[in-house]
Amino acid sequence: MFKSKKLKTFLFALSTTMALTIFTKHNAFAAAYKVTSGDSLFKISRLFNTTASEIKSTNDLGSDVIYPGQVLNVPAETYTVKSGDTLFLISKRFGISLDALRKANNKWDNLIYPGQKLILPKGNVVSSQPKAVIPYTQDDLDLLARLIQAEAENQPYSAKVAVGAVVVNRVQSSQFPNTIREVIYQRINGYYQFTPVLNGTINNPASAESRRAACEALNGADPTNGALFYFDDSATNQWLWSKPLAARIDRMVFVY
C-alpha cells in the first residue's frame, strides 16, 4: 500500500520527535558527580536542581544509601576551562554561586588548568557555612578585614575582595608564610610587605563591607586571577610594574 503524502509527513515528524525525546532523555544526565563525605541524595538533588527520586531512578539505586567516592549521573552541563579562567570568573559567567561550583567539583582550592572539565550545578549547596579555602580564626578574619579597610577603603567592593584574595593566594603559595597573620606581618629584607602595617592603619577597625569582602576571599572568591602582589596605579616601583599583569580594578593593579 502507498501512504499519502500527509501521512508520510506525519509519520516522519513523529519518528523524529520520538528520536529526539529518546536522545534528550539519554543525555539529560550528562555529568558524573563523585559523592563526598556528608553528602545525601537530598543535598545532591538541591545542588543539581532535581529530586532525590530522580537521581535514584537514573542511577538504579535501590535505597537512599550512598557512600563517598561513589559516582552518580546528575543533570548538569560541563565546562572546559580556558586560559585565564578562575573559579570566581566561571561562577560569575554562568550565574552560579562559587560555593556551589566548588561543591559540584569537590574543588576547594583555586588551582584549575586549561582543558579541565568542570561540572556546572544548577541549584544551591545545602550547608550552613561555605567551606573556606584556607584555615582561619576569627582573629585572622578581623586582621584581614582591617587590612582590606586600610588598603581599599575608597575602592569598589570587588577591589576589597581582591586585596583579601592576594593574602589568601600568598598563604597558599610556597613562596610565602602559610598563615594569614604571618603573611600580613611578613618583612622581606627589612621591609614590611603591606604599608598599613608600617603606618599603623592596620589597627583601625574594619567596616562591615570590609569584613564581608574578607569572608568572600576566605571562601575562594578571587577577582585577581591568582595575583600575589597589588599596588595603586600611581606607584613608581618599576619592579612591581615589570611583573605580569593579573587584573586591574579601578586604580588598583594586581600582578603575579
TrEMBL record:
Superkingdom: Bacteria
Family matches, as Gene3D superfamilies: 6.20.240.60, Cell wall hydrolase SleB, domain 1, LysM domain
GO molecular function: hydrolase activity; lytic endotransglycosylase activity
UniProt xrefs under PROSITE patterns: LYSM
PANTHER family per record: LYSM DOMAIN-CONTAINING GPI-ANCHORED PROTEIN 2 (PTHR33734), MEMBRANE-BOUND LYTIC MUREIN TRANSGLYCOSYLASE D (PTHR33734:SF22)
Pfam family, one: Hydrolase_2
The organism of origin for this protein: Fonticella tunisiensis
Name the record gives this protein: LysM domain-containing protein
Coiled coil location: none
Keywords (A to Z) from UniProt: Signal
InterPro entries in the record: Cell_wall_hydrolase_SleB, LysM, LysM_dom_sf, SleB_dom1
Domain LysM: start-end pairs: 31-74, 77-120
Signal peptide: 1-30
